[in-house]
Amino acid sequence: MRTIRAAAVPLLLVLLISACGQGSPAPNAAETPGQTPGSPSATTSAAGNDGIGRGPTPKPPAKPASFGNPGGKATVPAEGRAEDTSKPNRKIGTGTKASCTSDAVVKAVAAGGVITFNCGPDPVTITMTATAKVRNANGPKIVLDGGGKVTLSGGGKRRILYMNTCDQAQGWTTNHCQDQDHPRLTVQNLTFTGGNSTGDTTEGGGGGAIFVRGGRFKAVNTKFVDNRCDASGPDLGGAAIRVLSQFHNEPVYVVGSTFQGGVCSNGAALSSIGVSWVVLNSVFSNNKAIGSGANPARSGSPGGGSGGAIYLDGNLFTLRIAGSVVQNNTAKEGGGGVFFVSNDRTGTMRVENTTWTGNRSAGFETSGFPGVFFLGARPPTVTGPSLKR
């Protein structure tokens, strides 16, 4: 504290400063992270507003959630990185948890553009009472960024997010809906939990948290926990994400993301038909494919049970997993970690610098590749650690 000459300052003020001035004053409300506008500043004394004393210490903002594999070193190309949200088109919420509602999310997603959240300094869970649906004419870019503090929950009752360029109810914008470059949907810095598409047969079903057909899609720094889709069926899947078709067969990027506790007939994290994927610095753990009868379904069975974490089917498509962790996923039939079937045997799969352990296939898998069932152009390429049982 600065030395103050007694001759220049009244004795009472000297005594007050000596008693209360241990250290520098705390920043004011405009400077303190997490300070709610309009609340008492950190320089307000408990005894009054004379500015003397430290006053109540403001609650620091909660630490944002962490996503993906922090030890992953895979290089992320520009097209797989998070989108710039420094100038959002719209914000969900007005600074409080109560203002961040399902209705606000639904309206913002339908309007499109770059969307952020303003729900206050603490983490917030928004339980969706309706599925947020992308309108195909709005955008063309839709970015949903939770800032690491927002969880969208389906409440165990419904799908959370839906985009389909071929759904007339969301508007047709081209005469080739299955192969158009928009909308371009990105989810980032968000958590999705409790999504459930059970019983929704649109486009064959699946996609408990997110369903996408057409345009482009990527997930960056996003967590998917305890999502669900139908428990049986030979070809549906994606408790977290289901994707059908992407513009010019470009890949879906999944970067720095986490998939835990998903349950579905097949592909309890990711599922697609004829779609390529690039998975970087991500984690897949404790996901379960619980269907029975495989694909095509054995006689007398409902089918399913393949791809504990990832289920991919179709003709020409690729899968690359790099810098990731794939562990303790299970399949009642084939491919405890990954089920990959390229029907015309043109597809390829690469696993690079990835920890792969404990992925159990109760029925069948490809010899030499624990936790994988693979049919494609050539055996999967594995660099770095070997796949371990």
Automatic annotation (TrEMBL):
Keywords: Cell outer membrane, Membrane, Secreted, Signal. It is found in: Cell envelope; Cell outer membrane; Secreted. Residues 23-98 are annotated as: Disordered. Residues 33-47 have a biased composition (Polar residues). It comes from the Bacteria. Its main location: other. Pfam families: Chlam_PMP (PF02415). Residues 1-29 form the signal peptide. This is Outer membrane repeat protein.
